[in-house]
Amino acid sequence: QVQLVESGGGLVQAGGSLKLSCAASISTFSIKTLAWFRQAPGKQRELVATISSGRSTYYVDSVKGRFTISRDNAKNTVYLQMNSLKPDDTAVYYCNTVSRTYNWGQGTQVTVSS
Q1: From the centroid of its chain, how far is CA 46?
Q2: Percent helix / strand / coil, the chain, rounded to 5
């Protein structure tokens, strides 16, 4: 069973930065598109960013210019660099394939205070 382990979350003031990591228990080399999702309290899980095997990226409008997704297949890890954080970014962040292929990990909590 594939495991996804997210880390790097925490409490940060508005305007601050965090870098999230997601380690997969399988080689990510063969995974075409990896993604970060987030779920805020009382809201549905939403797609935040994706990165293809060719390093093409996509960002939801609300994070464009502030977040950067990257991947290191040698480490089976996908990252999310988050800058200029806002209170609206507060959520539990998860990684998966863009198609949500694998079981969800526990996620990592990001809390942005105003």
Answers
A1: 11
A2: 10, 50, 40
Pairing of strands 33-39, 46-52: antiparallel
Q: What is the per-residue pLDDT across 67-93, written as a single tens digit (0 to 9) for each?
A: 999 999 999 999 999 999 999 999 999
Spatial distance between the Cα atoms of 62 and 60, rounded to a whole number of angstroms: 6
| Phi (first) and psi of residue 74, to 5 degrees | -65, -25
Residue 93 and residue 6 in contact, taking contact as beta carbons nearer than 8 Å? yes
User: 3-state DSSP call for residue 24?
Assistant: strand
pLDDT recorded at residue 30? 85
Contact of 72 with 23, CB cutoff 8 Å = no
| Measured CA distances, 109 to 24, 25, 28, 101, 112 (Å) | 18, 21, 23, 22, 10
Sequence-separated (6 or more) residues with CB below 8 Å from residue 1: 103
Kindly report the three-state secondary structure assignment for every residue of 26-39: CCHHHCCEEEEEEE
